[in-house]
Each structure stands twice: as C-alpha cells, then as structure tokens.
Amino acid sequence: MKKGKKRSLSKASSRASKRKASSFGDKMTSPRSERAAAIRRSLLVVMSAVDIDWKLLRRFYEPMLLLKLLDPVRGQRVDRPTDPEHGALSSTEIRRAFVNKLAYLCDFKKGGDTSTAIALQNSPQGVVIHCAANDHVKPRVKDFIRETLELLVTVDDTNHAKVEALIFKKAISLSRNRLRTYWKRADGMIRKCSKHLQCKAPSSSFTEMIAEKSTDSGTALKLCSWLNELQRTAESMSSLVRKCYQARNSRLLRALDRLSAEGKPHCRAFQDLRHYIGRLGAHRMATKTLVAAVAGAPGFLEGFSVQVEPSSPRAYCNLLPEDTTASGIMGRMCPKDGAASYRDALKLMDSSYELNLDVALEENCAFETRVHAELLLLDLFIRNKYEFAGEDRYIGCSKPACYSCSQYFRAQITSFTLPACHNKLYLRWRPPDIFDELDLEAIQRRNDTMNNMNVRIREEIKEQLDRRTLTRHRQFDSTTGRSIAFDIETFQNHSNDEHFDFNLGTRESFVEDLEDASEQRWESSEESLEES
Hints:
Number of helices: 20
Helix content: 40-55%
C-alpha cells in the first residue's frame, strides 16, 4: 500500500482521543479493553473529516453487512427513467442521454475506479459541466471532456459526420485498454459458444432455438460465421466497435438474445458474449448520441465550462468482531419482543443454506470505503444550492448506481431523479464527507439520510427472513448496449419533430434532421482521419 493513499489511523485516533476522551469514558459501560476503544475512535474519525457518532455507524453498517451476506443483489435492474409526459424526445431525456453518454466515454478503465458522474449546472455565463470519479478524474479525462465539448460546439449541417468521427477516434484512444479487456473476454466466449453452435452441422435443437420454429435452419451457421468475422476484425479496434454497433438490431443478435434466455443450454456463455458485444458497440452509440443531441440544441454549449470535483480519500471502517455476530445484530435491530423469532429464522436460513454467517461476519467486519462519484456531485449541488440545467435534478453516470447509492438518493428530503440501478450491494461505500464542523445543517442531513436508509435496510432483512429464501440474481453492473432509454434511431424517426432548449427545458420547432449523415458518409470521414 502506497503512503498517502489512505488516511492515517494513528494520527486520527490520537486527535479523536484528545477531543473525545471524556465522552467516550461516559459511553463505555464496561472495560472492553483499550483496543475496542481505539477501534471505536478510529471508526469515528476516518469515516469523515467531521466525526460521525460510532453508534450510528454501527447501526448502519452491521445490517448492511448482514444484508450483503444474505444476498448481494437486492433486486432486478432498474433502467434509467423516461419522461412520461413528453416521451423519449423531450429535452429532459435528450439532456439526460447527453450526460450519461459523456460520463460513459470518460470511464476509460474496467472496474470501479474510473466510474464517472456528470451533472449540468445553469449559470449566467453558460452551462457548467461538473465531473467527478470514484478515484479522481484523471488529467487525460479532463482533456478529453474539454476537447470533445470544443468539437461539439462546432457541429452544424456541414461537419456533422466529421465531428462525430473525430470524437469517436478520441474516445477509442482514451478507452483502448478497457475495450481490449472487453474483446479479450468476448473472444473467449466466441470460442466457447462456437462449439455449442456446432458450426459445421447445427443440430435441430439449436436450429429451433435460434429461429423460433422458423424454417431458417442456417441461422446458427450465419451467427457462427459472423462471430468469426468479429475475430478477423479485431486487429482494428475502431472497426470492431463499429461492427458490434451495426449488429445491435440484427437478426443474428436477436438469435443470440434467444440463446441467452435463462434455462437454455449454455445460456451463461451466450449471456456473457451478448453482454461484451453490447459493451464494445456502446462507444459508437455514445459518440453518435453526443453529436445528435447537440445538433438538436444549437447554442446549448455556448460559454460552457468544466469543473472537476475532487474525490474523497478512501478510509477503513472497523466493526468490533466480538460484537458483529448474527445474533447480536438481530438483537440490536429488533425490539425485544420480536428479536427471538427473527433470530430463529436467521439461524434456520444459516443452516439450511450453509451461509456460515458468524464466520463470514467476522471475516468481513473490517473493510475499506469510498464515496461514489454520483454522491460527490449530489453533495456538491446540495451544499452550494446549485441550479440544475433545465431544472432537471438529474446526475448522469457511466454505470447504473449501486444499491446503496440508489437508497441514498431515495432517502433525501429534497427529491432528485432516481438514477438507473443495478441493485448490487457494495460494502465499500460511505456517504459524502463533511469538512466543516460548524455546518450543523449538513451534519444533520447526513445523519437523517443514514437513518432513513437504515430503516429500509432493516425492512429488507426482515422481509427476507419472513420468506426464508435466498434469491440469487445474476446481472452485470453495466448495460449490454441494448437496454438504453435513449437511442439514436429516435432522432432518425423524428427528423421533422421539434427542437429543444436544454437549459429552459422547452420545445421549439425542429427544422433539421439530427442524424443527416449516412453510415457511408461517417465511415468516409473516419477513413480520411485515419489516413491523416
């Protein structure tokens, strides 16, 4: 572990002990040893610059840890919201698509470190693009945002395709390592799925499965041939991405969807393959969405500025191992008259499903936490009372939100538009830090939010114990590239519709086709760029 990456526990504990010595002495009802006191003091300080009461943290993280061990996926994926009043072509939906796709292109590395959130702020000088990442926005990402926005400002009827090609080239360059990871995994799945497709002589079962009882017995061979084409295209990452994007609505990909259905033979391999093909094509989709959205709102980016928000340092949370037991957690969660029945139910589930809860709780009671990117921006807008563009209280993110972030949004007193959510529970999470100990309003707001979240977490534990079942969902953090609320074809099919003002949220007459460049024109622009 490199120095400077984590907060110092020893210094923090020393400061806390001097500041909190008397109050801790009053709270300790029994001599639990200096080690227990030190853990409690470190728990207070390292989680935030302003102390959080250790009892609140224990009440919060103990049920969260138990809920994760019962089932880390807390439900089905929740897609990004649509605008029920105006439909997919409202200014609100286009603005949300813009920030989502820009955030997606900034997430250049596989994993969670570069997960990016973007929010738009109204200002007298123009729109302010606020950007944050789980682990600091890197300089090259800030440069990419600035250069991309500078290109988007110039979009008009004459250079639509050229701008799109330039941004696409920059996006591929920024995310090349991530795309290589996707292709490496997709290539492995192609080799595996090709065997199942029985390329030389597809069986009747696969033929029926793919063609859905149609007479096209060659669909399996065509799908296998297309997958082999992908492998030959892989030398050029831009060509590979284009090919995956072009296939998104093809008959062959629909066949792959059917092979991915739960219960089908080898469905997991086909699910993985379908997912990575969608991920590879998503960069093309994102680029086209950015250009088409800005083309539909001339002047939207005039006077724009970019603000990069710093990430909070990582910090450890330490729960007392001797206290963090299944029975102890249930006793603190439930009133005395109801604790016994839930303890019995938990014990039954523990033995029936061989969860080994007490062992798992002890092994996981110390963990690293960090503030996720969307919460950094949420906190920024609340603290500074910023006005969202279009009065749309929405924060875009490169990935759907985790379970905890979604619950944090829900627990806010002031309503925000709920983000998409993959509903996976990550323990390495914490609410936004507070650095001003005199900001009593912010401290109370954070306490209220954590308590509101805790109510829901405890309810879910009790609901699951009442059912006495485990529901293990399998789903990806990111989308497959097909379940996207906003699609570029929306523009194609409504070229004579209306034009939108991002900042005012109003609709004006639409006079130009938002995707006037054909596929051939776009590719010729890119080819000329590659040659240069």
